[in-house]
Design brief:
CATH architecture of the largest domain: 2-Layer Sandwich
Largest sheet: 8 strands, antiparallel
Oligomer: single chain
Structural class: alpha+beta
Length: about 375
């Protein structure tokens, strides 16, 4: 029985030394944070694990600069708590944050939440990174200035790389002021109606910070001054019709709605959870496909979408692993890059980790060879693509 070596560095120097030791040993290496995305994609093969959770410190933070630098193993929720003391936040709301997801883990998985509608994903919040490559080379990109065009953009390259190109050591992020008030508009409707109403809210200059259609309800969140939010609430409610509910920030029903979004994204044991991207106007068609395939294979399906960002999560529950595989296969037929983030028991036997490779797979393979020529980091995570 083989023994898995665990490295747990607490500093950049220790991380560099760990990568150097691993390179000398020729070990296939898995990079781990809090473990909230350990199942995403393929199963890596490894003889050693590099645990980043001891690298959890705040490096620098000056609220007037609107930037913060942290070690990549810092829990994202802890970072938000630190910023909240100065009425600031990193404009990300990923579901995994409440489970302890780290800053580096969120970058490595390209994760985000409903406010992606306005603020984008982690690639839009990160303005600088320090990484350690497979051969223990330390590389830096970006910095504390909001606009920086010099050098190679490692932050975007590592965004969504699932630990296959190197190890994120330090991350510099832009921060935003926290809104004085927030409220949520909730409207029960199907996907087509949600897309139509959401478009009217956006083009009506109401500026929702998040627009999410979750399992039959359109949710639009409005942030700003108390007076501004109230004014937009009156206009949004009039636009949405009699079925609309206006829920101020202290209304527990608003929190329940958004917790429902996060719960669907995370799933529970026995669920299959996938995420995929589409053109915004494909949201109703995707919802129809999910409904038809789930019914055909006797699976309960739920879906949450940021329709105008084209980002969707589908949760499958009940039924057999083969039934889950059939639904995911149908999704991949139209959306090949569908990513499985949670695997029901037995599903890996029924379903390849990934669908058909993207047109740019040759570029992905070339980047992998350049950064990790011995294929030691996250080997198998993107198999069979590379």
């Amino acid at each position: 029985m083989s023994t898995v070596t665990t490295y747990r560095p607490a500093s950049l120097a220790e991380l560099r030394d760990a990568l150097a030791d691993s390179a000398r040993a020729g070990e296939p290496l898995a990079v781990a944070g809090a473990g909230t995305a350990a199942d995403w994609g393929g199963e890596p093969t490894y003889d050693a694990v590099l645990d980043t959770t001891a690298m959890s410190g705040l490096i620098s933070y000056n609220p007037t600069d609107m930037t913060v630098a942290v070690q990549a193993g810092m829990p994202f929720a802890a970072l938000q708590e630190t910023l909240a003391a100065h009425a600031q936040w990193v404009a990300l709301d990923p579901a995994r944050a409440s489970d302890g997801a780290t800053v580096g883990g969120l970058v490595a998985t390209a994760d985000a939440g409903p406010v992606r509608h306005t603020f984008g994903t982690s690639r839009d919040c990160v303005i600088g990174v320090t990484v350690v490559l497979a051969d223990a080379t330390v590389a830096r990109s970006g910095g504390h200035v909001i606009k920086n065009v010099a050098g190679y953009d490692l932050a975007k390259l590592f965004h969504g790389s699932l630990g296959t190109l190197g190890v994120l050591a330090e991350v510099v992020l832009r921060v935003h002021p926290r809104a004085a008030a927030t409220a949520t508009l909730a409207v029960p409707c199907d996907a087509a109606a949600a897309f139509e109403l959401g478009g009217r809210l956006i083009h009506g200059s109401l500026e929702p910070v998040a627009v999410e259609w979750c399992d039959g309800t359109l949710l639009a969140r409005f942030d700003g001054t108390a007076g501004g939010v109230d004014d937009r609430g009156r206009r949004a409610t009039a636009l949405a019709g009699a079925d609309a509910q206006w829920l101020p920030g202290d209304d527990e029903r608003a929190a329940t709605h958004w917790q429902g979004v996060a719960g669907l994204v995370r799933g529970i044991d026995g669920d299959t959870v996938v995420r995929l991207g589409t053109a915004p106007d494909r949201t109703p068609a995707l919802a129809g496909l999910v409904t038809r395939e789930a019914a055909a294979h006797a699976v309960d399906a739920a879906m949450t979408s940021s329709p105008f960002a084209g980002a969707h999560t589908v949760r499958l529950r009940g039924g057999t692993a083969a039934a889950h595989a059939a639904v995911v296969t149908a999704l991949r037929a139209d959306y090949p890059a569908t990513t499985v983030c949670r695997w029901a028991a037995g599903l890996r036997v029924e379903l390849p980790a990934w669908g058909a490779p993207p047109p740019a797979v040759a570029v992905l393979r070339a980047v992998k060879r350049a950064f990790d020529p011995d294929d030691r980091l996250g080997n198998g995570r993107f198999a069979p693509w590379f």
